[in-house]
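dumping this here so i dont lose it
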């Protein structure tokens, strides 16, 4: 949906932000604008249109981010309206829109020249701090009002909306991965609020430190799934040369080891199950495949992109991957394969 100036003014007015100060940054899962808050802070306005999210769920997200910020984590806390609330609700043509405002992360997007073991160690440490923050998080309600990972709109509503565009085999495999992963034990050292979309794309680098933002997909989940997402988005995708080649896993190893070393300094998880990580990695590939089909006209993309999509589809359907997980988890006794015996 393209908003008119009058509609945008209605959305940002509660925050005291003038509509002529908005700069559109992009629209994907949400509509995002840069602005200047009356407090003087550079800020980001997020307008969530539909996307299967309730006001209570957004407020729970903001409660989590505020807690992490209060602990000193480098995240972007929400800013209040003039009436002292963090989220306002509007409606356009019967469609509910939820509007939030965050401090803008300082620094700049991570560039290729920044990539290296030192940056990845910092990314791992930041994710570890995120998970450690669960121990001191007390929600205002009986339960944190966010979905559990297996209820995610990404693998539920978004997949359902692609009826006829993805294969039955793909759907069946996603369901099988979810059912299998739900059998892993749940306790306070393995499960809690997670970011749900940790990647270097959702980070800024400022004075040598990483800042993490975009908690829109925050949910109840396994801490391992955040790590599997890092492995997929920020390691695998960064070293992939369009298509997998024999050196792929070897290029991933030093970066992943740096992530894990950083995480061990701050995080709750002390040992990873290679089979659980493999399945969450495949589920992440499924989510990306679904996302592409939701936001792109896949009939018009380049032939090489179509070939890449076919590889992703086959990986998910077969539950196999070009990454050699036995090698990725071989080198450190803390990364041993603790696969459960049937």
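and the seq i came up w/
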């Amino acid at each position: 949906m393209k908003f008119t100036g009058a509609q945008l003014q209605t959305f940002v007015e509660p925050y005291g932000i003038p509509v002529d100060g908005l700069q559109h940054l992009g629209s994907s899962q949400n509509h995002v604008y840069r602005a200047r808050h009356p407090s003087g802070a550079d800020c980001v306005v997020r307008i969530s249109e539909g996307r299967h999210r309730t006001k209570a769920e957004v407020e729970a997200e903001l409660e989590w981010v505020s807690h992490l910020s209060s602990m000193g984590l480098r995240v972007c806390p929400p800013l209040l309206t003039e009436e002292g609330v963090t989220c306002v609700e509007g409606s356009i043509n019967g469609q509910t829109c939820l509007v939030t405002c965050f401090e803008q992360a300082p620094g700049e997007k991570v560039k290729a020249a920044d990539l290296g073991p030192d940056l990845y160690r910092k990314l791992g440490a930041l994710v570890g701090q995120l998970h450690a923050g669960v121990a001191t998080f007390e929600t205002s309600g009986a339960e944190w009002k966010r979905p559990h990972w297996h209820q995610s709109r990404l693998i539920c509503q978004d997949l359902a909306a692609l009826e006829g565009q993805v294969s039955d085999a793909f759907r069946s495999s996603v369901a099988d991965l979810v059912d299998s992963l739900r059998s892993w034990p749940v306790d306070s050292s393995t499960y809690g609020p997670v970011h749900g979309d940790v990647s270097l794309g959702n980070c800024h680098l400022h004075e040598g430190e990483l800042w993490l933002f975009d908690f829109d997909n925050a949910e109840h989940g396994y801490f391992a799934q955040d790590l599997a997402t890092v492995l997929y988005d920020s390691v695998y995708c960064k070293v992939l040369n369009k298509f997998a080649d024999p050196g792929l896993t070897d290029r991933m190893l030093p970066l992943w080891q740096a992530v894990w070393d950083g995480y061990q300094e701050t995080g709750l998880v002390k040992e990873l199950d290679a089979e659980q990580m493999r399945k969450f990695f495949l589920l992440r590939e499924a989510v990306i495949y679904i996302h592409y089909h939701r936001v792109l006209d896949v009939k018009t993309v380049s032939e090489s992109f179509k070939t890449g999509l076919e590889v992703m589809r086959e990986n998910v359907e077969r539950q196999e991957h070009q990454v050699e997980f036995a090698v990725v988890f071989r080198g450190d006794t803390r990364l041993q394969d603790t696969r459960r015996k049937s």
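Confidence is low (pLDDT under 50) at residues 332-342.
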